[in-house]
Amino acid sequence: MNTTVLMKYVAALVALAICSACGSSSAVAPSTAVNGMLVTAAHANLSALRHYVPIVPDRHAKPKIFEYIINYYDSYAGIFDYPKSDRQIGTINDVGGQGCTNVLHGYGRKTFWIVAGASQITKYEVPDTPIKTLAVSVGAPSSCAMNRVGDLAVGILYGSGGGDVVIFQHQSGSGTVYTTPLAREYFDGYDNHGNLFADGFSGGSAFELIELPKGSSKFQTIATSNTVKFPGSVQWDGKYLAVTDQLADAIYQYTVSGTAAKLEGTVSLAGAGDCAQTWIAVGVVFCADAGNEDGEVYNYPAGGSAVAVFTGNFDLPLGVVAAKK
User: Fold this and answer.
1) Distance in angstroms (rounded) separating the CA atoms of residues 209 and 220
2) In this structure, which long-range contacts are made by residues 268-272, counting pairs with CB atoms below 8 Å and at least 24 apart in sequence?
């Protein structure tokens, strides 16, 4: 473990961590950490203008699309408007980690959430207006996901509730805490039936995928038919449960039956350094690349080489989400 890098982020970031962890150097890539918790599988090669809104909007104009590449905790997110351009057009300060929005896949509708601070998550109106903050009382938030009825699930990386998931019904209240089999929770996502999936590490530091079936109060472990080297994003892609493997630079597509996940396809992300969070939109998947220190766009589900690389200000990108105005 690279202790120099670990101490840098212990000092810089207050109480948050996300995206990944790491084992021995013989098995996985070097890691960075927050408060001593491993946060990304990336090699540590750490190598704005506000959007104008017309007073009288064009009623015939297409919705404006925005992507958010979110850097390490308690830092900032860059705003992009791909495919109009691949250059950063704005910044949201005092956020960091992962984001989510109010669709299972595609472009969110007018709002999105980003982890913001050691124990909270903030809702924004597109493109950059904060409108609501929820307190997370049991530990450091890592991930977030929304189902079709508007519930918000927030994963906990560490703290008194390390590995837990807090669900805020209709994005309000103090939330209900659900314990999980995980020691540390990294990513979560709902499927089209309202089942909540999450991944992370077990107490024995092994990859683990879990599920909270709709209507249940207890998470169960899901066995994958292939080996996942390092936990990554969990997202419904319209047909499959898609799990990103940060070390393999790939997205695995699963069908889930009972407590078994069968691999149906693999989407290669060629040239990626370490896609921490990925976001599947319409025909593309966005990658927050902590290894290459940028944001990338790949065709989905075709995969292959990146079709675009974002240019802007990056500092250990960990999260990405897309929404439209």
Assistant:
1) 9
2) 268/303, 268/304, 269/296, 269/298, 269/303, 269/306, 270/303, 270/304, 270/305, 270/306, 271/296, 271/305, 271/306, 272/296, 272/306
Tokens at residue 154, please?
Answer: 């927030």
- 10 Å CB burial of residue 290 (0-12, 13-18, 19+) is buried
pLDDT tier at 38, thresholds 50, 70, 90 = low
Max distance between CA atoms of the chain, in angstroms, equals: 59
pLDDT at 106 over 50: yes
Predicted model pTM: 0.85
Question: Whole-angstrom Cα distance, residue 13 to residue 140?
Answer: 11
As a three-state string, the secondary structure of 175-188 is: CEEECCCCCEEEEE
Q: Residue 218 class from Cβ within 10 Å (0-12 exposed, 13-18 middle, 19+ buried)? A: exposed
Output the CA torsion sign for 276, 48, 84, 107: positive
- Among residues 193, 184, 187, 188, which one has the least CA distance to residue 164? 184
Residue type, 156: I
Measured between alpha carbons, how far is 101 from 146 in angstroms, rounded to an integer?
Answer: 7
What domains sit in the chain, N to C, each tagged with a CATH number? Answer: 3-47+64-324 (2.120.10.30)
Predicted confidence (pLDDT) per residue in 216-269, tens digit: 999 999 999 999 999 999 999 999 999 999 999 999 999 999 999 999 999 999
